[in-house]
Amino acid sequence: MAELCSSLAFQVNRSEPQLIKPAKPTPRETKRLSDVDDQQGTRFHFPLILSYRNKENQGDPVTAIRDALSRALVYYYPVAGRLREGPNKKLMVDCNGEGVLFIEADADFTLEELGDTIRPPCPLLDELLFNVPGSDGILGCPILLVQVTRLKCGGFIFASRVNHTMFDAVGLAQFLNAVGEMAQGTHSPSIPPVWERELLDARHSPRITCTHYEYEHISNPESSFLLTKDEGSLVQRSFYFGPQEIKAIREKLPGHLSTSSRFELITACVWKCRTLSLRLNPEEIVRLSCAVNARGKHNTLCLPLGYYGNAFAIPTVVSKVGLLCENPLGYAVELVKKLKSKMSEEYMKSLADLFVIRGRPPLPMAWNVLIVSDNTRTGFGEVNFGWGKPIFAGIAKSVNLITFYVQDNSLKEEYGVVVPICLPFSCMEAFEKEFKRMTLEPVLEEINGGV
């Protein structure tokens, strides 16, 4: 039975959800998640949207993706299982082959009509990614939900929601690229998946050797602007950082910081604008955490190619509100650089040990905390089901204290970055004002007074 729903002037007609199982029999076993996977901070689902243009004579995207998903699950068979808790609430996967949720849908609008509204926070998210009742729990629920929506123009939207304990963004992109390869006719993924979650388990003699501000309680002189305050009036808006905005920010910095990366500039700008908008006590402590990937040559962790579990940490820096708000932007940029330099093999091992020693402490839930995750280079923009690369690919919305950087491909010469921000309604106008001021032409005294 189909269900008709509407938002704005658009309508999406969905078929009943179905379970997609692996195309062939898979091992029936139990696999433990790593101590980094099952931290408290990953026990949620995050949504992703990819949009594709029409391609003549390519066939039906729903059929192609549904079949490819089933064949990819033969190799990624834990994704078709269900999470259970063992002793001490240790998460493990019951590899039972029950399958992932899949929804076929049709919409009465085109990509052109949708326009920029697909950017986070997408107002059509509930229609493009239906929350099947009872499917969004951590235990005993499908690990992945996929909805493929055909559009009137012949294009389509691929939306998914995934349990973060199974994948980080890079791991999910690896899986989706494998689905894309199979949709184009390959028999196996070009990068074979690697489980080996024990590589990010705590050491046999766990010991916390690094400072992890992200899990420390910080006492403030006044009660912090708690997450629960104004929660009923939270709003989300996106802010665009294109070449002009980046140039304006860069020109506000002193010479020794003028070569800072785009990530460093955006993060410093967002952190300062957000802190100013919250109107906190100048003596209060604010903290910034950035998700940093542990893969690659920049550290000695040496995770194998194909590892698709959570392999990131969120190193953190702290500052007094007054210092962050009253100093030139270069102060914030220097702190972002310091934060990135913390990532190392030892930091990851210390983090896994912390989760075991302290019993998976939750992340602080107060507005003086900001967590950012750069998803512009994860591989989402490369996922090709046979219709070419997506014209939009990114996380669909921010999650309270967490904001995800999303790649925007509307400019051919250089892509921009879309940053969704979630704030109480009373603070969003102030954020917009500070953002406009920060991304305009530089002020002379601000440059001369840089750190």
From TrEMBL:
Superkingdom of the organism of origin: Eukaryota
Keywords: Transferase
One Pfam family, short name: Transferase
UniProt xrefs under InterPro entries: CAT-like_dom_sf (IPR023213), Plant_acyltransferase (IPR050898)
Gene Ontology molecular function terms on file: transferase activity
GO terms under biological process: fruit ripening, climacteric
Signal sequence annotation: none
Alphabetized PANTHER family for the sequence: ACYL TRANSFERASE 4, OS05G0315700 PROTEIN
Similarity field: Belongs to the plant acyltransferase family.
Name of the protein this chain belongs to: Methanol O-anthraniloyltransferase-like
